[in-house]
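Notes from hallway chat w/ T.B., transcribed later so I don't forget. T.B. wanted the structure written out for a chain they're using in a teaching module, and asked if we could keep both sequence and structure tokens in one place. Agreed to drop them here.
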Amino acid sequence: MNDNNESSKQNQVGFWSTLPGVLTALGTLVVAVTGLVAALNQAGLIGNNGPGTPDTNEPPVAEVDLPQQTQNSPEHLLNEYALGLTNRDFVSLIEIYPTLNETGERDWLEGRNGKLPIETIQLVGQARRIVDSESEVVLRARMQYCREDGSGSTDIKNYTFLNSSGAWELATRSAPEEVTSIRC
């Protein structure tokens, strides 16, 4: 019987000598080294903390590809349009939207249509370009309108901007879609 035990011991190969054993050992080593590097980096013992690198524990801010909002971009003008309505700044509104029906807009804002006056108007989220060319941009945007009593609504409209001699101006706005009553 001793001969059988000795021959079976000689035929047995250690686990670490087999392919699965070697792969297990390598995987464990990679995980251990990765964990060590991550811990040392977190502790600030390794990594680039040189000039220009923030030395804070704040999470990185995700970068979002936003359209440029220059002083005369349609996105900027749409924000200015909402602000002009809130402030009743019809001089600025006419510069942004030359064909604006000033009387009708004043009546609507002041509540002469049987509703309470509108106190604030603002964009909700970011306007989305649905047409984008050198001469025309159509922005689809949700606006929020709040009345003096805290009631309000949101709607979605398309705002068409035309480029005239290098300057954008609001040409038309569509009828409201998806009108929702809200509390402001």
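Follow-up for T.B.: The two ends are 91 Å apart (CA to CA). Might be a good example for the class.
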